[in-house]
Amino acid sequence: MTDSPLTRDAVAELVKTQLAEILEKSPSEIDLALSFADLGADSLALIELVEAIEEQLTPLVGEFHINDEDLEGLTTVQEAVDYVSAKLAA
After folding, report:
1. pLDDT for 23-67, tens place per residue?
2. In angstroms, rounded to a whole number, what is the distance separating the alpha carbons of residues 76 and 82?
3. Which residues contact 4 (CB under 8 A, 6 or more apart)?
4. Three-state SS string across the chain, please?
5. What was the pLDDT predicted at 4?
6. In this predicted structure, what is the pLDDT of residue 68?
7. pTM above the 0.85 mark?
8. Which residues are annotated as catalytic?
9. Sign of the CA dihedral with 67 first, then 71, 73, and 74 last
């Protein structure tokens, strides 16, 4: 694992905070085990989430991009956190 400026917990907080803002919820309402569908996140909300994560991480780690085809396989908040964490560690 490379030296990422963000721990898995920090990535989880980033994803939860950005998703909460997009869905107009409190971050405490965003449980990692919930699916995006359970949270009421549609495909547009997920695109907004990806853009927000990329915008937040690029200044910290250099160019950070989530591929559209990778996004299709992510169904829960935890999967998104795991994906971003793995991509940061690569």
Report:
1. 999 999 999 999 999 999 999 999 999 999 999 999 989 899 998
2. 10
3. 61, 85, 88, 89
4. CCCCCCCHHHHHHHHHHHHHHHHCCCHHHCCCCCECCCCCCCHHHHHHHHHHHHHHHHHHHCCCCCCHHHHCCCCEHHHHHHHHHHHHHC
5. 57
6. 82
7. yes
8. 42
9. positive
* Residue 2: pLDDT over 50: no
The domain 8-89 is placed in CATH, from the list 1.10.1200.10, 3.30.110.10, 3.40.50.1360, 3.20.20.140, at 1.10.1200.10
Which token pair is 79? 């999967």
What count of other Cβ atoms lies within 10 Å of the Cβ of residue 14? 18
